[in-house]
Amino acid sequence: MSPRFKPGDAVTVRRAYPPGHLRTPHYIRGQAGVVERICGSFPNPEELAFGRDGLPARPLYRVRFVQKQIWPDYRGAQADTIEIEIYEHWLEPATEGKTHA
Amino acid sequence: MRGYHDIGGLPLGAIDRAQHDYALWEKRVDAMLVLLSSKNLITTDELRLGIETLGADAYERLSYYERWIASIARALVARGVLTTDELGRRMAEAGQRPEQDA
Q: Considering CB atoms only, which of B8, B52, B78 is closest to A51?
């Protein structure tokens, strides 16, 4: 699968709660960030968890979020960021005007 | 639903940073996972799913490598590498042996 997003794209993490093994942390779902890099494509861990091959491989992105935006009571520097690796099927193009990263 | 393991951001107090030695059985469990992975008999994600479906009570009660071996056993049965009968018999046998290591 060719990557849907490129570095610099504003994205929103899907607010989804499927059962199974998920590598998208609960606290980041629904949050807006910016693609920092494309990490490559890898078998889908959600499928690997059930003993299947996880193919086709899914693009994985490193997405950058602003700490202050994720944790309202964050006491560090305003500019601090957190980067999380997230598979493409968890990302959507950001809604206009909602990104700050 | 939030998994009981997915605790990022929850207020759970200080982290215990004390170091400890590993018991021989813990090293064996670690080695077993490496070997099984190299033979494509388990993936990290199967290990994780098994741990994430132990149930909150067992997850809290079991130590790190106890969670691993419970999950490894379940995955190997699911894949047909072991049967529950074999596993049960060997566990009963092992339970009869004197303690070998702490």
A: B78
Question: Alpha-carbon distance B43 to A54, whole Å?
Answer: 11
| Residues B26-72: tens digit of each pLDDT | 999 999 999 999 999 999 999 999 999 999 999 999 999 999 999 99
Domain count, chain A: 1
Determine, for residues B45 and A20 on separate chains, whether the beta-carbon distance falls below 8 Å: no
| Interval A55-73: pLDDT, tens | 999 999 999 999 999 999 9
B92: domain CATH number? 1.10.472.20
Q: How many domains, chain B? A: 1
Range(s) of the domain holding residue A53: 10-93
Report phi then psi at A22, rounded to 5: -120, 140
C-alpha torsion A41→A25→B62→B85, nearest 10 = -50
What residues in B contact A51, CB-CB < 8 Å?
Answer: 43, 46, 75, 78-79
ipTM above 0.90, yes or no: no
Residues contacting residue B75 through CB under 8 Å, at least 6 positions apart = A51, B42, B46, B47, B50
